[in-house]
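Obj: model holo form, ligand = copper (II) ion.
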Amino acid sequence: MNFFKTLGEKPWLDPTMANSDALVAVDPLLASRTALRFIMGIVSVLFFLFIITYLSRSQYPDFQALAGQPWQPFTDPGRLWLNTGILAASSVAMQWGLWSARREQINRAVAGVSMAVFFAVLFLVAQLELWRHLQGMGYYVNTNPANSYFYLLTAVHGLHLLGGLLVLANVVFRVWYDGALTRLSGPLALCTHYWHFLLVVWLLLFALLTSRVETINMLAALCGF
Amino acid sequence: MQHAAIADQTPELHDPHSFITRYIWSQDHKVIAIQYSLTAVFVGLVALVLSGLMRLQLGFPDTFDFIDPSSYLQFVTMHGMIMVIYLLTALLLGGFGNYLIPLMIGARDMVFPYLNMLSYWTYLLSVIVLLASFFVPGGPTGAGWTLYPPQAILQGTPGYDWGIILMLASLAIFIIAFTMGGLNYVTTVLQARTHGMTLMRMPLTIWGIFTATVLGLLAFPALLVSAIMMMLDKVIGTSFFMPALLSLGETLDYTGGSPILFQHLFWFFGHPEVYIVALPAFGMVSDVIATHARKNIFGYRMMVWAIVAIGGLSFVVWAHHMYVSGMHPAFGFFFATTTLIIAVPTAIKVYNWVLTLWRGNIHLTVPMLFAIGFIFTFTHGGLTGLFLGNVTIDLPLSDTYFVVAHFHMVMGVSPIMVLFAAIYHWYPLITGRMFHVGLGKAHFWFTFLGTYAIYLPMHYLGFLGVPRRYFAMDGTDFIPASAQSLNASITISALIVGLSQLLFLYNVFWSLRNGKPAGHNPWGATSLEWQTPEVPPRHGNWGPELPRVYRWAYDYSVPGTEADFIPQNHPEQKGAEG
Ligand code: HEM
Ligand SMILES: [Cu+2]
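Output (holo C-alpha cells):
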C-alpha cells in the first residue's frame, strides 16, 4: 500500500473508484501479522529509548563500563557468548520447525518448536545464572549505572522472550485443540519472526553492554551527548 | 494473540447469553467501550472534585483546615494525572475508539476481542492502583503530574514513599492496557474495513482515532521507560536520574544521575500526549460539524493530511516544555521553530471547520453547540500556545497561571467540549433514546461561559506573576492584593461549572428511561454506524450481512437528490439526474 498515493485519492469524485484495497473478510492471520509489525515497532522504540538514555548516562563521570580493564566482568565475554549461542539455537530450531510445518512434516515441526522452547527457557535460566555470577563478583544493581543498565536491559529482554513463549504456547495449544496441526505454519511463521527479532535485539544489547569506554564514548558523541 | 474469525460469521453464533458474559466479561466492543467510559468518567469526577478543593483553597485561603500545603500538592498532582491520562486518554480511545471504530468502518467487532477485554480489565486495575494511593501511609504523591526527579522521590515531597511507587506502578499498568487496546484499534482499522471502505472514505473520526493511537503506541514507551527507571531509583537505589545530593543534611547514596534525562523522556511522551487527546477530538468534531451543518467537510483531504502531519510533527517539539531547564541556544531555536510549524496544519483545521460552517444549514443542536464552543476554546488556547512556544516569552511566563490557563484551554476544556458533543451526538445510537434537549442546552451554556469565567482571568493572573502549584501567596509583594478577589471569582465560577456537570449526569441517566425513542438515524447522518439494522446495534453489529460502502462519509445536501444526505452504504450514483 502506497501511503502517499492513498492520501492523494479524492473519494468524493467517483463513488465507484478506489475499491482496490477494500477487504472482503477479516483474515485473522493478516490481522495478526499487522499487529506483530506494530508490536515489533513498539518494542524497538522501547529498546531504542533505553539505549539512548544509556549513551547519555554514560557521559557522566560516575559511569564505569563493564568491559575494558582486566578485572571487569565482560572484558572476557565468554559467558555472554554462550548465552548468545543458546538463544541463536532457539531461533534456528524455530526456523527449522517452521520449514517443517510448511512442508507438513508435523512431527518435525513439533520437534522444532519443542527444541526452540527448550533453548529459550535455557537462555532465561542462563541469564539468571549470569546475574548471580555478577552479584558474586560484587556487581550489584545499584553499585554503578552500567550495572543497573545491564540488569535492566537483560530483564526487559527476558520479559519479552517470556511473553513470546506464552503466545507460542497459546498458538500451539489452539492448533492442537482444533486438531488442525496442518494449519500450524501460519501462526508459527509470526512467532518465528518475533524470535529472530528478539535475537537481533539481544545481539545489539550484547554489543552495547560489552563495549569498552572508548566505543561507548564514540557512540555517545555521535548522538550528540 | 487471539485469532477470532469475526468476519462473516452469523452474529448469533457467539451471542453471549448470561448477564455475566454479556455485560461483565464481555468481548463485545460496545460493552467494553461503555465499561471504559463509565470507569473514566468515574475517576474524572474524582479529579473534578479535587480541582474544586484546590480552588476552594486558592479562592478562600485560611478557611479550610483540612487542606494543608501537602494535601494541596497531592490534589494538584492527582487532578492533573487523572485528567490527562485516566480520563481523557481512556475515554477518547478506550471509550469512543472502541465504540466507533468497528461501527464506522463496517466491522463486526475488533479483530482481537479477547485482547480488547483484557485491555479494559488492565485499565481498571491501573485505576484501582492509582486510587489506592489515597489510602496508603503518606497519601498520594505530590510531585506534580510531571513527576520530576529528584524531588518526586525525596523526603519533603508528600507521598514520596508509597504514593510515588503506586503512581509509577499504575502508569506502567495503564501503558500495558493502552498497548493492548491500541494494537486492536490500529489493526482493526487496517484489516477489518468492510467492502468499499477505502482509507480515504473513512470518516475523520476514524482518522483522528487511528493516528492518535499510533502516536500513543510510539509515545507511551517513553513514559514506561522513565517510570521503570524512576521506580528502580526509588526502590533499589540505582542512579539513573538521581544526582549525588544532600537531603536534610544527609548525603544520599545516589551518584551522578541526570534529572534532565527524565525531563526529556517525560516530554518525549508528554507532548505527543497532547495530540493523543487532541486528534480524536479533531476527528469527532469534524463529523459533528458536518452532520449538524448539513454540509460536506471543507477540504477532507487537507483534514486528513493535517492529522497525519500533526501526528508526525508532534514528536519533534517536546523540549519546548524545557526552556527553563536550560539548553543549547540552537536547540531552543530548533524547538521554537518546530513548535511554530506545527501551528500551520492546526490552523488549517480550524479554518476548515469554520469554512464548513460558512453557508451551512446550521442546526444549533446540543452537539453542535458544544462543537462550536470547541472552536472557540481551542482557537483561544492555541493562540496562547504560540506565545509560549517562543523562548523569550516562555521564560517569564513559565510556571505561572498563564501556563495553567493555556493548557486548560487547549487540552483540558477543548477535548472535554468535544467529548460532550460526541456523547450528545452518539447518545441516541448508544442508548436508543434522545436526551433532554433543554437540560443539554443549559449544560452547554453553564459549561461554556463558566469555562471562560474560570480561565480568562487566569491569563491575567499569569501576567501578574502568580505562580502555579502554590498553596498560598506569601511574601509575594509584587502581586497586587486585588488578585485575591479575582481568585475568589474564579473559584465561584469553577464551583458552578463543577456543579453544572450534575445536569449532564442527570440527563444521561434520566433519558435512559424517559427519553423519547430515538429511532434510526435521528440526525440524518451518512456514516455507517447509523445504518445498523437495530438501534442500539446488537452483538455483531450488522445482522447477517456486512454493509457495502459506495461513497465517502460527507454526501450532505448533494444537489439533485431527494434527502439532504446519502448514507455511505447507499448504492445510487450521486446526482445522477441532476
Ligand atoms: C472545572 C474544571 C477544572 C478546574 C477548575 C481545574 C483547576 C485546576 C487547578 C486549580 C490546578 C492547579 C493549579 C496550580 O496550583 O498549579 C490545575 C492543574 C492542572 N489541571 Fe486542571 N482543572 C480543571 C479541568 C482540567 C482538565 C479537563 C484537565 C485535562 C487536561 C486538567 C489538567 C490539569 C493539569 C495537567 C494540571 C497540572 C497539574 C500539575 O501542575 O502537576 N484540568 N487544574
Ligand atoms: Cu508540548
